[in-house]
Specification:
The protein is 32% helix and 27% strand. The chain is built from three helices and four strands, in the order βααβαββ. The chain has helices at residues 15-26, 31-38, 60-68, and strands at residues 4-12, 49-54, 78-80, 83-89. The longest helix is centred in the N-terminal third of the chain and has 12 residues, at 15-26.
């Protein structure tokens, strides 16, 4: 069975927005609630939940960051062609 992770993310347009979101998370704000509030991705309706995915399914930078995380861990800001992501590994 290939490696798989279950992640959620917050996608914003600018690094400034990503830093602001990350600060809110560090202060204890709910990841899912913040995703619903600020994320640009349609997954925001599910609190940023992207479901379970394996290697080769996501853009390279996103995948590399997601697979480095431990369950419950939140990534630093990840820049891709879509914008700036904060990723949380759910399982």
């Amino acid at each position: 069975m290939p490696d798989q992770v279950h992640c959620a993310h917050i996608l914003v347009k600018t690094e400034k927005e990503a830093n602001a979101a990350l600060e809110k998370l560090k202060k204890g704000e709910s990841f899912a609630n913040l995703a619903k509030e600020v994320s640009l991705c349609p997954s925001k309706k599910r609190g940023g939940d992207l479901g379970i995915f394996g290697r080769g399914k996501m853009i390279k930078e996103f995948e590399a960051a997601a697979f480095k995380l431990e369950k419950g861990q939140i990534s630093p800001i990840v820049k891709t062609k879509f914008g700036y992501h904060i990723i949380k590994r759910l399982s």
